[in-house]
Amino acid sequence: MSTPEAEPVGVLIVDDDPLVRAGLVMMLGGAPDVRVVAEAGDGTQVLALVDRHAPDVVLMDIRVPAMDGLAATEALRARRNAPEVIILTTFDADDHVLRALRAGAAGFVLKDTPPEEIVAAIRRVAQGQPVLSPAVTRRLIARVAGSDRDRRRGTARERLALLNEREVAVAVGQGRSNAEIGAVLYLSVPTVKTHVSSILAKLDLNNRVQVALLVHDAGLLDDQDS
User: Fold this and answer.
1) What is the CATH number of the domain that holds 201?
2) Residues 153-210 pLDDT 10s
3) At what angle do helices 95-103 and 208-217 cross, to 10 degrees?
4) How confident is the model over 46-99, as pLDDT tens digits?
5) 122 and 17 in one domain?
6) Which of 5, 14, 104, 171 is 20 to 30 A from 187 (CA-CA)?
7) Do residues 184 and 171 lie in contact, with contact meaning Cβ atoms separated by under 8 Å?
8) Same domain as 124, residue 21
9) How far is CA 133 from CA 3, 59, 86, 151, in A?
């Protein structure tokens, strides 16, 4: 008896440049397990297209007219069962990118990223995995953090102090997988998954990138290698 094939990952592309959208559609068309379900030229179209086409992943350009990609990401990720969002940008130190990650985007890719890496990023976030390394997160925060760093540090530490699973949260910030966290903390993988779910619920966050950002804001990884 044959096993039914998995449904392709549905992708919504949000970019105001028709040529960029066309290039992305052509590129993603070469991946048999990825399907572009819709395109949008500005952020105001995103919520309606998500309702109509139910994509798994949204490729979101930050700098789109009418409603920018940041506002669209915040509105989208505030919803229940929202699709994952990957930010498309030309700069890796844009403070808007950092705000989008704080709002719940799963990561970002530069527009000049090789096609196979963009496809791989889509596959990863569709599986619930972030596409942002801790080292990139640290560089991003360091380059755009301003005068509010001390305030963020204090707020982050207060939030993390509420956790019984603080060690697990720090391990997430270090970029460790569930299996790696289990090995370091002598926990089973199901127990780690339970702890991560508990952390997300207690902190009202919706993915591991947000946990990592909070750990970084708290200054708990300052001694880690970049």
Assistant:
1) 1.10.10.10
2) 888 999 999 899 999 999 998 888 899 999 999 999 999 999 999 999 999 888 888 8
3) 120
4) 999 999 999 999 999 988 888 888 899 999 988 888 999 999 888 766 677 888
5) yes
6) 104
7) yes
8) yes
9) 34, 18, 14, 24
